[in-house]
Design goal:
This protein is α+β, with helices and mostly antiparallel strands and 181 residues long. It has 9 helices and 5 strands. A hairpin with a 5-residue loop joins strand 3 and strand 4.
């Protein structure tokens, strides 16, 4: 990947909201969790868990999304981490290389739709863990899974503009990634 520009959390959040915030399913999820809106849910959780507004954000473009995206690690979300061994250390490629996961995602209509109609422009959000150096996906898990599946199956994806907003997360703030306890 290559550097495009420095950016800010408000700009990163605005791009995320433009991609996901209007989706009725995500709006309903926010209300189900006791938040007043998608922005209230995603913004307050991101800030509380990661201190997103205090991080220095940069925007990058993928040079080879078919290899770079599957190499990202799964984020600190129990729903995703529960699918893999090596909690907090598994990549999307690792996920897809598990036979049960390969079968599951190969039949998932959302993933298949993303493989056939990958959104463009689209932006992922990630952090680099300063304790391990791992690039960890915070937003974009379904898109990353679609890319990992396509790579595994040898199916090309017609990528348009695919970017990723990245911040370095200090080692003393990486406890968030211990989802196994």
């Amino acid at each position: 990947m290559h550097f495009i520009a420095d950016t800010t959390w408000p700009a990163v959040f605005a791009a995320w909201q433009a991609e996901e915030g209007a989706d009725p399913a995500w709006q309903a999820e926010a209300l189900k969790r006791g938040f007043t809106s998608w922005a209230d849910w995603r913004g307050s959780v991101a800030e509380a868990k990661l201190g997103t507004t205090s991080l220095d954000w940069q925007l990058f473009a993928f040079d080879n999304p078919m290899t770079e995206i599957p190499a990202m690690h799964l984020g600190p979300f129990k729903g995703w981490q529960s699918r893999v061994t090596g909690i907090d250390a598994a990549s999307f490629a690792d996920l897809i290389n598990l036979p049960t996961e390969l079968d599951y995602w190969s039949a998932n209509s959302k993933i298949l739709s993303l493989m056939n109609n990958f959104p463009s422009p689209t932006q992922f959000i990630a952090v680099i863990r300063e304790d391990t150096g791992a690039l960890v996906c915070l937003e974009g898990h379904h898109r990353a899974t679609a890319v990992a599946l396509a790579a595994k199956l040898g199916r090309p994806i017609n990528f348009g503009e695919v970017t990723i907003a990245i911040a370095r997360l200090p080692a003393d703030r990486c406890a968030i990634f211990n989802v196994s306890s």
